[in-house]
Amino acid sequence: MPRYRPRLAAFASIVLCAIAAGAVAAQAPEPPAQATSPAALSSNAPEKAGAPPAQDAPTPSTALAPINADKLIPALDETVDWYRTLGIQEQAATEPSDWSFYYENRQIAIQVVALAFQAARAAADLIDRQQPAAEAAADAPVSSQTLAAAREKLEAQDKQVQGELDSELVLLSRASAKTRREAQEKIAALRAELALIDTKKDILAGITSMVKGHDATGAHALRARIEAMAVALPAANAALPAAGAAASSSTAGAASASIPASAAAPATRPASPRSGLWDLGANVFKLSDKGGTVASLDERTRALQKTLTQIRAPLIDQMKALSARSDALIAQAGTAGGAALESEQSQVKELAAQFRQIAAILLPTDQEITFLNQYRRNLASWHIVIENQSRNALKALAIRLGVLLGILAVAFALAELARRAVLGHVKDLQRRHQLMLISRIVHWSLVAGIVGFAFVGEFGSVATFAGLLTAGVALAMQSVLVSIVGYFFLIGKHGIRIGDRVQIGPVTGEVIDLGLLRMYLVELGGPGSPGPTGRVVAFANSVVFQVTSGLFKQIPGVDLVWHEITLNVPKDADHAALKTQLLAAALEALQDYREEIERQSRELQRATASSYRGDAVPTVRLKFSADGVAAQVRYPVHLQHAAEIDERVWHALLKIVPTGSTTSDA
Description:
Elements: H1 5-26, H2 31-35, H3 38-49, H4 69-83, H5 86-92, H6 96-138, H7 144-174, H8 177-232, H9 249-254, H10 277-333, H11 339-425, H12 429-456, H13 459-476, H14 478-490, E1 501-504, E2 507-514, E3 518-524, E4 532-540, E5 551-553, E6 560-569, H15 575-589, H16 594-608, E7 619-625, E8 628-638, H17 642-654, E9 661-665
Antiparallel strand pairs: 1-2, 1-5, 2-3, 3-4, 6-8, 6-9, 7-8
């Protein structure tokens, strides 16, 4: 509305000038009416009343306020925003000490907001009382008194013209035919003048309603805005301490009744302290964030305190000016008398009224600043507590890390000792490899367990998590786990080693590598060609659990096998003598390899702890059937010389039985 006042004043001035001009035209024979205009009447009214000039006797309604709406509303908004930071404090409060500081700050904040609205209402009342007088002085052409005078003048003109019209109508009824035309023209002119006066009255009524609406809006808009803010903030209507009371802990405690029951701390069981590295590290970061939050709250409180100090400064200046003026008037009262004494007493009363109006704003503002000082002291104490907690948390984290590093150092030292013990005392390379592998697995499993427990700190949750994880891994990696378990079976007492000859299904080969998941063989040929074929075959270690495939291993240091030759004996031969001859021929053919065959036979008996004590010597067995007699010669063969031994045995046997023979391995 204030931006429309210049247009309203210009329009009203034009209308009032038109009204004055019409009045002059209608009442030309009357000099008093012609010499007086609404503006002149309003400007001359104080002189006729004999009142003193406005600057000689200022009143509370005409004195300028030390604060305006442009400063009042932003300061109130800043106070409301500052009050809403209590939600941040509530989120940051996690310890009993935090809740203590939060409750005290909440009580102080409620008092600060209530005082802020109290000062704002007092300032709005002062501004509202000053605004009509200031606007009347600035916009005299559209003041209520001017509009009322113009309206009275139009009413007087309307009655005068209406009277003349009634007289002319009476004369028209009695006029002769000669004067009737002149009377009709005069009646028409009077009616046109009445219509013009009615139009002017309508325009004046519209201007009057606009001015009244603007005055009402200007006088109450600021107060209405403050009350709307107060409705949205229940703390604005909280009970206030006595005027001038200091912001002490007892005052803050007295305000606890204004805190709703819903603001109480949640009645939860305190959480058990956690000593895991993860929890300790998270606690350090949380305390750091909390310290930063408290520091930012202190900065916002300092900014609000600065704003209130800026508002307070002109209030104090005006209070000093009013006090000096009142002192001067009181000093003059002793020498004055009569009318001058009454005038001075009136001025002192007016100054006292102004003093009370300014004090209604200044005292709550002073109390706000005092409460904010206490608020900042609480935040400083809270920050000190948080710093102490942060130092303790860092100390606990450092101790926990030191203990972890010490335990890991011991674990690595034990692993190194175990490695050196294995290297120094175990001569078997295969056994050394197995022990080193087991040592590494145990060592790193122990390290993983120590680190895991150090970071988590809660054994129950670790056990639950480990159980679920193990079940998932076992289901998803079943084949891998079976191969890992099979590896430990393969490296056992009766397991296999690198260089052993094994047979897995139809494949025969020599082990060249035994890993945690797979073994690798160099494929070997059959009996006629026992050498390597040049191919490498890989098998998963889980083959030890497969019944259909089967795993056959040649005993280490023993490469002794049995070959068998079947010969068809003539029907008319001496069977007993032939058997003796065949046995003697086989023994003679094996004579050069007898020592090695006996050694491997003894090694075989020792390795298997078998109850069989037979010697590895050739045997001859006769088989009788309807087709004839067959002699089966079975003899041991050293694999490295298998082809040479077979060739010698063949030549020796064919000398005795030259035809009808077959051979096979046993």
